[in-house]
Automatic annotation (TrEMBL):
TM segment ranges: none
Gene3D superfamilies attached to this UniProt entry: 3.30.450.40, Winged helix-like DNA-binding domain superfamily/Winged helix DNA-binding domain (1.10.10.10)
UniProt domain IclR-ED: residue ranges: 74-254
InterPro entries: GAF-like_dom_sf, HTH_MetabolicPath_Reg, Tscrpt_reg_IclR_C, Tscrpt_reg_IclR_N, WH-like_DNA-bd_sf, WH_DNA-bd_sf
Top-level taxonomy: Bacteria, Pseudomonadati, Pseudomonadota, Betaproteobacteria, Burkholderiales
Organism of origin: Saezia sanguinis
Cell inner membrane among keywords: no
GO biological process, one term: negative regulation of DNA-templated transcription
SMART domains (UniProt xref): HTH_ICLR
UniProt KW Transcription keyword: yes
Keywords, in A-Z order: DNA-binding, Transcription, Transcription regulation
Protein name: DNA-binding transcriptional repressor YiaJ
Amino acid sequence: MYTQNPTDTPSIQVIDRIFTLLNILASHEEPVSLKQISELSGLHPSTVHRILNDLVCGRYVEHPQSGVYRLGMRLLELGNLVKTRISVHEVSLTPMRELHMLTQQPVNLSIRQGDEIIYIERIYNERSGMQVVRAIGGHALLHLTSVGKLFLAYDTPQQIYAYAQRRLAQSHTQNSIQKLPELESELAQIRRNGLSCDDEELEPGVSCYGTGIFNDEGKMIAGLSISAPTDRLNPAWQKLLQKASQTISRTLGYRASGAP
């Protein structure tokens, strides 16, 4: 019998049954028979039949052939509407504020635009002890920032080589990466760890940790980072940063491999 968390049970019985039937259909890749749905739900076949037929009328369920059912296209249409209305900026604000409260350092949200990242949001206060150099709307080359290197890490080898030819000569500090083998080595490590670091590569005295934010298609669409004076950068922040980015990614529909 299909069960769900009792704290999530609707107060109206028929709605509870609708949710149960939809969840059963969602757990099967192939159409499911009326008999099997009845057994899994614990509901009488006539009750299941009546509810499913009403859902077929609304296109929430499809009835491809006699005796079997599957989820309908109306759910896909509604899902796409939700997806288009979710803003990475909007869903990032609360996790960013929570991360800032824990670290008391600037927390940055950035996206990619060509060979650069663009800062689209920042949560910080004057007590962090660090002057914010790049305001919202500011930009920087990918290989000079933690989030930028994350974006590069998911490019193809050909794209990375082409970027290096265009941009590696443009460095800001003595720590900036200037050679392709060094860049490739660091990007390989980033792919293994899912975490990147800017070690005074953009601004002297300032270092960052960065992680990626992924959408429902598994594509990195933004990045989250913590900036701090280098002597204050705390390795314990890495897990906090990854937790925040995972929360944002899940809200956007991302499911890591093996996740339910």
